[in-house]
Design goal:
It is a single chain. The protein has about 180 residues and is α+β, with helices and mostly antiparallel strands. The chain has one domain: SecB-like (Bacterial Protein-export protein SecB). Helix content is about 35%, strand content about 35%. The protein is built from three helices and five strands, in the order αββββααβ. It has a five-stranded antiparallel β-sheet. α2 packs across α3. The radius of gyration is 22 Å and the shape is elongated.
Length: about 180
């Protein structure tokens, strides 16, 4: 009896001309788009034994459609370590990926490129940043996990607040 119900359901879906589009998300490519490391105080900084730099982290992501269903998402991470007013090191990474995304509603698409895709790119960026800082002669540096869902929701709330004020300077980027 269950077989008959399944066959009936299959026929009704197959006979429906307004089939919903199949949702698909696939990683096509992950790559470094731009990478910069600076240590303006080297080699003098290595002679200090009591330094305790303050580290600032800045995140943002942007997305661009390329082709019909492919989207480039770029996660930009900037890490700056300073002691007093002197920069110890500065790292900027543009970790990018090309994602095949089809069949999603506009709101779902925005969430995918604003939260899900940056979350996929983050481990690659994290490893690259840790490696370059270590190769720069500094102690191990580990970026803590980031809640991209919360950052995306915060960006949406900020954009809504700006829209309510009548100023929207987003330019296609998701602020983080």
């Amino acid at each position: 009896m269950a077989e008959n119900d399944e066959k009936t359901a299959e026929k009704s879906v197959a006979g429906n001309d307004e089939k919903p589009a199949d949702k698909q998300l696939a990683i096509q490519k992950v790559y470094v788009k731009d990478f910069s490391f600076e240590s303006p105080q080297a080699p003098q900084v290595f002679s200090k034994t009591d330094w305790a730099p303050k580290t600032d982290l800045n995140l943002r992501s942007a997305h661009t459609g390329i082709g019909e269903n492919n989207h480039e998402v770029v996660l930009t991470i900037t890490v700056e370590a300073k002691e007093e007013d002197q920069t110890i090191f500065l790292v900027e990474l543009h970790q990018a990926g090309i994602f095949l995304i089809t069949g999603y509603a506009e709101s779902e698409m925005k969430a995918l490129v604003g939260s899900f895709c940056p979350n996929i790119l983050f481990p690659y960026a994290r490893e690259a940043i840790a490696a370059v800082i270590s190769k720069g002669g500094f102690p191990e540096f580990l970026l803590q996990p980031i809640n991209f869902d919360a950052l995306y929701a915060q960006g949406i709330a900020q954009a809504a607040a700006k829209a309510a004020e009548g100023t929207d300077g987003n330019n296609g980027e998701t602020p983080h």
